[in-house]
Write a structure and sequence with these properties.
Oligomer: single chain
Distance between the termini: 104 Å
Number of strands: 38
Number of helices: 5
Structural class: alpha/beta
Largest sheet: 12 strands, mixed
CATH topology of the largest domain: UDP N-Acetylglucosamine Acyltransferase, domain 1
Strand content: 25-35%
Length: 351
Amino acid sequence: MTTIDDIAAEIGGQVDGNGSLSVNGVASLDDAGEGDLSFLSGTRYASALKTTRAAAVIISSDWDGDSPCTLVRVPDPDRAFTHAAVCMARPSPVPEPGVHPTAIIGENVHIGADVSIGPYCVIEQGASLGSGAVLLAGCYVGHESTLGESCKLYPRVSIREYVTIGCRVIIHNGSVIGSDGFGYVQCKNDSWEKIPQVGIVVVGDDVEIGANATVDRARFGKTIIEDGVKIDNLVHVAHNVRIGKHTGIAAQVGLAGSVIVGSCVQLGGQVGVGGHLKIGDRSGVVGRGGVTKDVPPGTYVSGYPAKPHREAAREYANVGRLPHLKKKVSSLESRVAELEEAISKINERPG
């Protein structure tokens, strides 16, 4: 049994209330029930704290509002709740090492110690799997591709030929690494001739790639994802893209060919980046932003075309005022017309 006091000790929090109550799950303030742990990181959801049924809520050390439940006060509720959720999470199933009878293993395949290869996996000739790698059902590893130690591929992941994957990489269901890039030449008769995509993909250590993401092999050379990059579901990384260390990319982002993304960059959901552009280190693009020119290091941009966020925010605010301005201009135009008519009548008077 895990108590509130146990959680507080783990995350370095101070208990305000009954710390002996047991907790067995995590939930939002609205959804929490008896035995659940929740958190409040700002004032936006403060009203929900008054009615929550959670056993305990992780909250900022300086919070002074009302609550019907025990509080665990910490300097950073977001980080503390993440730590608590990890501590309370049910352990992921760990497959036993070995090769399932339905798996197909090619010639000259290197399989490290304690590797688990699940049902209906296909490992092509010359591939290499580092020790502790886990391939769940239906995964494909192409000709002479390499997976480092302790990688985990969820069902139906496809690693194409000659791809290099680092250590401790996690790739979720349905993602494809090393598919052909979008390379064609339009002929005189309007048909398309395919440009061979002869490059590779190199993925660094400690990378995580979400479900149904695609990383294209280079036209020539390498598509590179450096160490510690985190990629969400449904992201498309085109040929010859380079993504720097510890960059985070949210769902439905599209990076066109030969884009260079720096280190520690944050790209919001549905961001689009045009081909051959550079996004500098420690910069960010707000969700649905469209990048049409280089983004300098340390710059935060939004909108389409993307521009510095404060500038874009002012423009958006002015767009919201357009109905009022239109009404005001119409009123002024009517007034001007009335004045012009009055002046015209005065000018028409004799003498």
